[in-house]
Amino acid sequence: MIARALTSFIKRYLSIAKWITVCPFEWEDSSHSIILRGLKHQKTVKRWLFFHLVYVIVETLLVAGKESDLRQNFRMLMFLAGNYQPTRLVTLCKLFFNLVEASMWEVPLLMATAGYLFPCDTPFLGSFLTCSFGLGRNIVFELFVFLFEFMTALAIVVATIHYSSYTLVTSILILYTECKSFLNKQFANIGESLVSFRELQILEKVVNSIIRWRLLPGVILIVPIIQILGCFETVMLLRRVKLLIQSCFSQFT
Fold it and tell me: N or C: which end of the chain has fewer CB within 10 A?
């Protein structure tokens, strides 16, 4: 039931990741499963991820060079499934994946829009190039920078935090489904039950290794950077809005 409800979300996510070349996997309709793409595509994905890493490092250096009193405020939204009722759990999983899919497009769009509206105030690579070369309000260059920032931010978001979210949630749901199937299944003999239990142990080990060696390093490295950038953009936007309001009131005084 859970797998059927989430299959469409996973297919859409893999199609987006395939389009922007940040994921070596794809959905195969004939077998209704996730498969690993060719070696050539895997090398392309590694090169793009290396480029995104360099981009994030440059942005971090730009943020560190700016004088601002940024404060990181981490907020967490937790969805509780109660007594793990199937209908409620499926509803919460659908809501989670819908929010992830919406933020997947909204966050890069907001970052690119902020870089377009405030070209010299945002700690992005495109803004740095615009101010360094003194191109001013060149509409062609600004559109190029907007698209560049949007595509880069989209690739970074899909390849890091949202990939981790999809991997973690999908792995936990698969493990939950398999455990429930193991408990409800009537085994013919002890040997068959031991084989199924051994498969559950292997699946649990895979989930633990994903959390320990993939999710935690990615979240520890990427989340603070995105949080700093988000706080910086919020401060700059509020400052611009405050100045705009003050200028509007000054015209009537």
Answer: C
The pTM is what?
0.42
Distance of alpha carbon 110 from alpha carbon 118, whole angstroms: 12
Give the tens place of pLDDT for each residue, 85-129: 456 666 666 666 666 667 677 777 777 777 777 666 666 666 666
Of residues 82 and 49, more confidence is placed in 49
Q: What is the pLDDT of residues 119-132, one digit of tens each?
A: 666 666 666 666 66
Burial class (CB in 10 A: 0-12, 13-18, 19+), 38: exposed
Per-residue confidence (pLDDT) for residue 41, from 0 to 100: 72
Residue 33 and residue 26: Cα distance in Å, rounded? Answer: 9
Q: Which domain holds residue 61?
A: 2-250
Is residue 25 within 8 A of residue 35, CB to CB? The reply is yes
Measuring CA to CA, which residue among 138, 117, 119, 136 is closest to residue 127? 119
Mean pLDDT for the stretch of residues 194-208: 71
Cα separation, 107 vs 160, whole angstroms: 13
Residues 6+ apart with CB under 8 A from 24: 36, 37, 41, 42, 45
Burial class (CB in 10 A: 0-12, 13-18, 19+), 245: exposed
In the chain, the number of structural domains is 1
d(CA 128, CA 122): 8
Query: Taking the alpha carbons of 32, 33, 38, 43 in that order, is the dihedral positive or negative?
Result: positive
